[in-house]
Each structure stands twice: as C-alpha cells, then as structure tokens.
Amino acid sequence: MRTEKRIDELDLKTLQQNHEELLGLCRSLEELADSLPFDIDDTLCRKVSDAVVPLIDRTQKFEEQLLFPDLDRSAGSCFTAMMIERLKNEHRCDRLAAEEISLTLKALLAGRCGLSFDTVGYMLRGFFECVRRHIAAETAVIDSLFAREPERQAALL
User: Fold this and answer.
1) CA separation, residue 18 to residues 47, 81, 95, 119, 132 (Å)
2) pLDDT tens digits for the chain (157 residues)?
3) Which of left, alpha, beta for 40 (phi over 0: left; psi -120 to 50: alpha)?
4) Distance (Å, rounded) from C-alpha 112 to C-alpha 109?
5) How far apart are CA 81 and CA 115, in angstroms?
6) What is the pTM of this model?
7) Are 105 and 48 in contact (CB under 8 A)?
C-alpha cells in the first residue's frame, strides 16, 4: 500500500527505533558469530532466531509504505529513484537471509545444523554487515532530503 502521507516526527522516531532494534540485533548476531563454536549462548541464539524475521518484516513494511514514497516524491530525482530501487532489492535479499539465519540458528540449537561453524559465522557476519550498511544508506538519504527542506527539518527538531 502506497500513501501520500509525508514523514513526520513520529514516523522518524518509529524509523529510528526500528533502526536501533536492527542495530541491536546486529550486535547480538556479532556476539553469536564470535562465540562459535564453543561458547554459544543458547538463550541469545533462540531470541535472535525468533526475532530476526519479524523485525526485518516490520521495518521493511514501514520503509516501503511510508519512507520510500515520501523520499521519491520529495526528491523527485533519477538518483533517488535508483537509490530507492536499490534499497528495495536489498530488502528482498535481507528477507531471504533473515529466514535462512532463523532456520540455521534453530537447527544449531537442535543439534542438527549441517553447516560448519565457520560457514554459520560467515553467514551471520555477512548479514549483519549488510544490515548496518543498509541503515547507513537510508540515514544518509534521509539526512540529505531534510537538509534540502529546512521547513521540514525545523519541524522535526
């Protein structure tokens, strides 16, 4: 569903909260990757495996329904359209990776993971690095947009 609503202060706070939760998830994934193979925190592993897909889903839906349409309308440039398309493509890849991570961590907890610990570690690291880069790119685009619209920037301060 697309909306004509412009991003307001509450929306930016929601986006910031989503980003903070994602960065927290990244820290947890990094902690798990660092703990492989001998010091795995089962509670953290279970928590991450249960949280990764819903958190990615919630954040991506918010961005695609509100953030991206507003960015596209406000910026109205070819570069912005290409950036939004890139971010949407990253969403698809991140969603698939999140599902794979959830399944892998659950298999690891059950003692039936067929992947080596090195492979699992690389999988976790690849995912959290991509998520961090995605958040940085979105933040840069938003900052650029609001820098060009002082009246919106002032309303959000």
Assistant:
1) 17, 23, 15, 28, 12
2) 445 778 888 998 999 999 999 999 999 999 999 999 999 999 999 999 999 999 999 999 999 998 888 888 877 778 888 888 999 999 999 999 999 999 999 999 999 999 999 999 999 999 999 999 999 988 987 887 777 666 655 555 5
3) beta
4) 8
5) 38
6) 0.87
7) yes
Q: 78-110 and 42-62 helices cross at what angle (nearest 10)?
A: 160
CA dist., res. 146 & res. 12, Å (int) = 11
Domains of the chain: 9-156 (1.20.120)
**Contact between 91 and 63 (Cβ < 8 Å):** yes
